[in-house]
TrEMBL record, chain A:
It comes from the Bacteria. This is Cytochrome. It comes from Bradyrhizobium jicamae. Belongs to the cytochrome P450 family. GO terms for molecular function: heme binding; iron ion binding; monooxygenase activity; oxidoreductase activity, acting on paired donors, with incorporation or reduction of molecular oxygen. Pfam families: p450.
UniProtKB/TrEMBL annotation, chain B:
Keywords: 2Fe-2S, Iron, Iron-sulfur, Metal-binding. One of its GO terms (biological process) is P450-containing electron transport chain. It comes from Bradyrhizobium jicamae. Its cofactor is [2Fe-2S] cluster. It comes from the Bacteria. InterPro entries: 2Fe-2S_ferredoxin-like_sf (IPR036010), 2Fe-2S_ferredoxin-type (IPR001041), Adrenodoxin-like (IPR001055), Adrenodoxin_Fe-S_BS (IPR018298), Beta-grasp_dom_sf (IPR012675). One of its GO terms (cellular component) is cytosol. Residues 2-106 form the 2Fe-2S ferredoxin-type domain. This is Ferredoxin. Transmembrane segments: none annotated. CDD domains: fer2.
Length: 393, 106
């Protein structure tokens, strides 16, 4: 008979933020689902369990009436199931097609990256978070959405405010206010370009939305653009930094990939397995169910910890190591099932084929600084928040 | 319930009786056919359910859509004229005895 999920109370939220992996391992070794008090959530951490959950959206729903995401952003397709999700997803598909990415977006993103790296080349040192990864992710997302040019900081602030608002379980009034302000800014930015996209079909996301059949209603466009801003900026930013860090800390692997550029895609996949930019996302249990021996009651919120599943030693040997030469195995960094990351191919192209290769190619003898070590934070979203480096200018 | 014959990269075969309201990918996963990953579970977004289909059945298999067609350029194993994403191919009764070859990598 299935038993109730065990409870862990002696872990703090700070433990999760600073280094979730020991907690993930403990949860993984305890049971298929464990209530972690600090997270106020039942966490699922084993690879096979998450895979089977994502194949059963009727039991494990993305839809949640109480979701803060919907409160902050509106009716987004990230929090829908079945046909309602598929319609929205299909509408934006043309902007994310591999061919469109290669032919249309890649040249634009290459140009942005050349400009950013060109500007910092002579300095000889920089924090790659603010000097490269954040502006790169912001400026390319801006182009892809189809916004008018704006400072990269604006879109980055909107993104952070939305994320903070969606995670504001304590209902802090200031966080709410900033999220609403970001939402209003985004609505205005959409309004400013909508007529242009209506009159001039192009590969941008807003254009795909207005030209979809049927066209996406304006309130859904607003909500979905907010999800894309909240969820499309951190991940490429963090993946750029994580891949760079993995290679800088493992010089033999770095030499291999520099000597054999065809290995870049492999290095990229290993980086996002090692430190997955999205570490956890929620699902809601719609009926009493037995998850591999743990009884989950109807209505319970579970957190699928893909960051933990990607270090599940049942699947990956020495999972804590960055090792691009490990046997090829699919990972869960892009999720699984109907909500599989729409940005998968654009991130593979941008991070793994444009930005990080160009960084190592143009900044010679790129290296970490002993006096300023990298700082990595987060568990729901995780990545380096500071990556100070030097190179030979 | 037509019988679909899955052939693994090493040549081993597996016959599966398939319900007609399913995709080839769903049939393969349901029967535990190895070699089909299907990360996105049918959204044509991951290109990890790539298979080679018997051209004799092309009339029943149909043509790849625009999105799938682009996705097929990014499969881990070589794309051929017989390549399709198995999540986009629906089972029909006339597929009785059809061979589906599973590639060595997804």
């Amino acid at each position: 008979m299935a038993s109730a999920a065990p409870v862990i109370t002696d872990v703090s939220y700070t433990d999760l933020l600073e280094d979730p992996y020991p907690v993930f391992k403990r949860v993984r070794d305890t049971a298929p689902a464990v209530f972690v008090a600090a997270a106020n959530l039942t966490l699922v951490t084993r690879f096979d369990d998450i895979m089977s959950i994502e194949r059963d959206p009727a039991t494990y729903s993305s839809d949640n009436p109480a979701s803060l995401v919907n409160k902050v952003m509106g009716p987004t397709f990230m929090r829908k199931d079945g046909a309602a999700h598929a319609t929205g997803r299909k509408a934006i598909e043309p902007s994310f097609r591999p061919g469109t990415i290669k032919e249309h977006w890649a040249p634009k993103f290459t140009e942005i990256c050349e400009r950013l790296i060109g500007a910092l080349r002579e300095a000889g040192e920089a924090d790659l978070f603010s000097a490269l990864a954040a502006p790169m992710a912001s400026l390319s997302l801006m182009e892809m959405i189809g916004f008018k040019a704006m400072p990269w900081q604006t879109l980055a602030e909107w993104s952070q405010s939305l994320i903070d608002g969606a995670g504001n379980y304590a209902r802090d009034a200031e966080i709410d206010r900033k999220a609403m302000e970001a939402g209003a800014g985004i609505d205005a930015a959409i309004e400013a370009v909508l007529d242009h996209h209506r009159a001039n079909p192009n590969p941008s996301i807003l254009s795909s939305m207005v030209h979809a059949d049927p066209p996406m209603p304006i309130e859904e466009m607003r909500a979905n653009i907010k999800v894309i801003i909240g969820g499309g900026l951190n991940e490429p930013r963090d993946a750029i930094l994580t891949l760079t860090l993995g290679l800088l800390e493992n010089s033999a692997q770095k030499e291999s990939v520099l000597a054999r550029p065809e290995l870049w895609p492999t290095a990229f996949e290993e980086a996002i397995r090692w430190i997955s930019p999205i570490g956890m996302y929620p699902r809601r249990v719609t009926r009493p169910v037995d998850l591999a021996g743990v009884a989950l009651p109807e209505g319970v919120q579970i957190g699928l910890c893909v960051g933990a599943a990607n270090r599940d030693d049942r699947r990956f040997t020495e999972p804590d190591r960055f090792d691009m030469f490990r046997p090829k195995q699919s990972h869960l960094a892009f999720g699984a099932g109907a909500h599989f990351c729409a940005g998968t191919w654009v991130s593979r192209q941008t991070v793994g084929r444009i930005v990080v290769p160009m960084l190592f190619e143009r900044l010679s003898n790129l290296r970490l600084r002993d006096d300023a070590p990298p700082v990595i934070r987060g568990w729901v979203f995780r990545g380096p928040v500071s990556l100070p480096v030097r190179w030979d200018a | 319930m037509p019988t679909i014959i899955f052939v693994a990269a090493d040549g081993t075969t597996r016959e599966v009786a398939a319900a007609t309201d399913q995709s080839i990918m769903e049939v393969a996963l349901g029967a535990g056919v190895p070699g089909i990953v299907a990360e996105c579970n049918g959204a044509a977004a991951c290109a990890t359910c790539h298979c080679y289909f018997d051209p004799a059945y092309v009339g029943h298999i149909g043509e790849a859509g625009e999105h799938e067609n682009e996705m097929l350029d990014f499969t881990a194993s070589e794309r051929t004229a017989d390549s399709r994403l198995s999540c986009q191919v629906r089972i029909v009764a006339a597929m009785e005895g059809m061979t589906v070859r599973v590639p060595s990598a997804q």
